[in-house]
Specification:
2 helices; 51 residues; 78% helix; 0% strand; mainly alpha
Length: 51
């Protein structure tokens, strides 16, 4: 697990403890969208074997 992931999880845990569930859900959705976009972009540039 990367250090940045750990810091994000700690931030979310603190928000959840304060009862800010909606904020955490919104951040998770945003993060998921970003990762999905990156995955799609990476597919475009993926090299195929020369068979």
């Amino acid at each position: 697990m990367r250090f940045s992931d750990v810091r994000l999880y700690e931030k979310w845990i603190r928000k959840l403890e304060k009862g800010k569930t909606k904020e955490v859900i919104d951040e998770l959705k945003t993060l998921a969208e970003i990762r999905k976009k990156r995955k799609e972009e990476n597919k475009k540039y993926k090299l195929t074997s020369g068979k």
